[in-house]
Write a structure and sequence with these properties.
Belongs to the tRNA nucleotidyltransferase/poly(A) polymerase family. With about 375 residues, this protein is α+β, with helices and mostly antiparallel strands. The protein has 17 helices and 11 strands. α5 runs parallel beside α7 (about 185-195), α7 (about 185-195) packs across α10 and α10 (about 240-250) crosses α12. Bound molecules: cytidine-5'-triphosphate.
Length: about 375
Amino acid sequence: MTMRDPCDGLEVYRVGGAVRDELLGWPVKDTDWVVVGATPQDMQRRGFRPVGRDFPVFLHPQSQEEYALARTERKSGHGYTGFIVHASPEVTLEEDLARRDLTINAMARSADGRLIDPFDGLADLEARLLRHVSPAFIEDPLRVLRTARFVARYSGLGFRVAADTRELMAQLVSSGEVAHLVAERVWTEAEKALGEPHPAAFFHELAQCRALNELMPELVPLLEEGLACMSVLPDVGEEQARWRWARLVEVLDREAREQLSKRLKLPRAWCELAEQVACTRHLVAESVVGEVEVMRWLNAIDAWRRGERVAPLLALVRLSEPSLADRLAAGWQAALKVAPRDLVAEGFKGAELGEELARRRLQAISVAIQA
Ligand code: CTP
């Protein structure tokens, strides 16, 4: 028996990022669909699974891709959540596209391959312009961050924000709407931006409209220097975004860094890496690096319990100070050879054990880094 395609007879369109990225030749991550002329009951009868809390979105039973009923939205309160959603079979595709943020995100592709582009998204895409669809852009302050994130992604292709869109972004800041965004929303966008090809452009764009002053004021003074250090990283694979952040905030004093982390409700692993990278920066800046400084650094990064932290930090040091990295690596290896269990066998215990361990490690480091 052949299964009936759940989309048979439904009016569906590919929309948003998938249409944009396909036209740009950019890898398409996930595909979103809009369904016109259907009710939630129609969708469920076809086997789609409802997942939307705030608006009617369904997962395709096989592909698991998102199918949203065409809807309109109107602002009803502050921040990202205050919306009145209207979804009904009468809402047209054009009405659905009209509620979207940027023209390049407001194009649709029909099942027979036709491009539906009522807001000239294709022309803006070719002109490399991030332009708002309508004045309703200012109904959603998250769009300030999204737009900056698209700059971080596509500025290598020549994209920039249209002047009148920048004005709306500034308006969203001056009206206080951006300040209403909850930390989690801000951080989700920032984290994504940190993984894009040009993360510095995200912060510069946010500074342009003064959103950075509202959301991450500690970073404002850093922009003048440029944010080049963010791109000087050891090979850290999937943790690239986290390392970029750590390198961004390493120049801040500890208090400012903690204040920023608290306001953004940063995940613990991000705060910890930022502190380790900052400690490493201090070590590299020391005029003399002897056993005391090395020991202090190893203690500060909690190397004894978290030995896996050392190698990537050494790789970071190696980028600017290869001979210091060699000495640190030698010191670390030598300190590792001091085994707590040998000291226990010698009869040390309690506080004395800890003191003797520290003394012998220091001694081992001292010999190793001079060799
Ligand atoms: N959208 C919007 N305003 C928002 C969020 C989303 O107008 N605050 C619209 C845009 O049309 C967007 C689509 O919803 O293209 C899908 O949103 P999302 O999946 O978050 O973004 P994408 O544009 O697909 O971008 P990404 O490649 O980052 O997923």
